[in-house]
Amino acid sequence: MIELANRVALHQSDMDALLETALLWVEIMPDQAMAHQAALQAYALLGDPLQALPHGYFLYSQEDDIEAFLAVTAIREGSKPTLITPLIEAYQNLLLDTDKQPTVKLAQAILYLESGQTETAIETAEQFLAAAPGNQRGLLFLAQTLQQQDRMAEALSLLEAALLKTPENKNLRLQYARLLTQADRPRAIVQFETLRQQDANNQQVNFLLALLYLNQGELTPAIELFNQASRDPSIYSDAMYHLGSIADRKGDNNRALQHYQQVRSGRNYLAAASRSAVLLAQQQSISSARSYLQGLRAEQPSQSAALFQIESNLLISTDQADQAFNILTHGLQAHPNNPQLLYARSMVAELQKNYPLVERDLRALLAQDADNSAALNALGYTMVLHTDRLDEAHRLIKRAYLLNPGEPAILDSMGWVLFVLGNPQQALPYLEKAMAIMVDPEIAAHLGEVQWVLGDRQAAIETWNQGLEKAPEDNNIKETMERLMKGTIKPPTKDPLKKHTEAFGIESMPIHLDKPSAE
Fold first, then answer.
1. Rounded to the nearest 5°, which phi and psi values hold at 80?
2. Following CA atoms 329, 333, 337, 342 in sequence, which dihedral angle do they give, to the nearest 10 degrees?
């Protein structure tokens, strides 16, 4: 009866009843594992690791359930960081059999890492491994922690030594192979091939190995492995996307489209939808591409807003800004105040020179997210170019800079507004830093202009040439050079949102009718 009541309480999310029934269960049947599991679950849902620990301790000491013992370290919801130290001490006070006592060190190491005490976590994990050499959990934890601390060589050495002793251990080899993908991809391929020999039907391994071959430009084995990996339903969509991208780069548009259209979920869903639309526009018509995207919106309501953006971008790429504006407005009617759609429509409004609407949409976005650095920067930059409210523009851009000081578009805006305000010397370091991060023609135009005004004309010419190498046909640089060489110093009017199109990810970028990159 208590077990039934406990299940009902869980189903009804009645936390008080869940805990009451679990504790009554433990009281009546103190030696039953299921009772302690129910109590552990109740305290976990309540976010109380200190009260959960005795039940995890029972399950480990009496039932050898190490999962329950270590699960207590993961109970964080509702817990304050101040509970970690008492929990570490509580683990220390547990009395376990000699063979199980070292596991306390592993639990403590996990908690030290959780609290940000990384070096102590590493030391404690090493103590655990000294008492329990070769323990897979400890080795994986220590290797991952070392890797997170950029101590890759140590992490690799640890796993290499372990594999010499237990070469058949698939989990250790898989972690070793994963780490090698960051350090030495040819060696990673060797390790994944070894794993594949051990289990040719491990589709996760086949997929990761296919990605490595694709990265190395070896398309034939990559295609074979992606096809094998697609047998796993959880991998199918990602495998189809990469098969589509390979066919796309080979110019096999029909096969590429077939693969892309099989991507119905996952992280590549929107990229596949976008590329499918481009191929349909090329092979059939813009109308066919739009119909396809509209069909996807009906099938995938959760992706509707992003699909509106993709359709808008397709229209922009074919010089149909008015239609793009209409589809985004329709999208905003379906998804009022959606941040991505507001941002996208502000870009289209800029193309239409509807600057009041640009400001209105960006302010509506900022009303929802006052710390959105991309929107702050876009609004400030628009004001610099199209209003005389330079002080307000400076405040907006400065706020964006404080939120995201490493973003080159924001650095460029910061330098440009300072220049327009008459402070070229202050502007220079921002623009130099932006150019060092990203060689962009608009940044090059700005930096070169500041250098020219400051009298360093040779540096200005070098900067412009650097920008033209990246974009030989860019008009920003050419117009800037022509204007300054004729002796006109007044800053020109440029597209205010051109450099901000990446702020909201792939969906917000204009679609270009080209093929995906090798990455």
1. -90, 150
2. -10
Beta-carbon contacts of 393 under 8 Å, excluding residues fewer than 6 positions away, are 380, 381, 383, 384, 387, 417
Helix-helix angle 424-437:441-453, to 10 degrees:
150
Residue count of the chain: 519
Tokens of 89: 């001490």
Is the pLDDT confidence value at 64 over 90?
A: yes
Task: Read off the pLDDT band of 320 (50, 70, 90).
Answer: very high
Structure tokens at 283: 């092979």
Distance from CA of residue 36 to its chain's centroid?
38
Look up residue 387 and give its two tokens.
């209003």
Which pLDDT score, from 0 to 100, does residue 250 have? 93
pLDDT in tens, 442-476: 999 999 999 999 999 999 999 999 999 988 888 88
| CB neighbourhood size of 128 (10 A) | 24
Q: What is the full DSSP assignment across 207-254?
A: HHHHHHHHHTT-HHHHHHHHHHHTTSTTTHHHHHHHHHHHHHHHT-HH
Q: What b-and-e string marks burial along 186-205, b requiring 16 or more CB atoms within 10 Å of the CB?
A: eebbebbebbbeeeeebbeb
CA 13, CA 32: separation in Å to the nearest integer?
24
Hey, what domains does the chain have and what are their CATH numbers? 1-133 (1.25.40), 390-488 (1.25.40.10)
Q: What pLDDT is attached to residue 291?
A: 96
Cβ neighbours of residue 469 closer than 8 Å, sequence gap 6 or more: none
d(CA 245, CA 251): 10
Say which residues have a Cβ less than 8 Å from residue 342's Cβ, sequence separation at least 6.
Answer: 332, 361, 362, 364, 365
The residues, any chain, with a CB within 8 Å of residue 189's CB and separated by 6 or more, are 209, 212, 213, 216
Token pair, residue 185, equals 């991809």
pLDDT band at 491 (very low <50, low <70, confident <90, very high): low
Residues 14-37 have pLDDT tens digits of 999 999 999 999 999 999 999 999
Average pLDDT in the 276-305 region?
95
DSSP 320: -
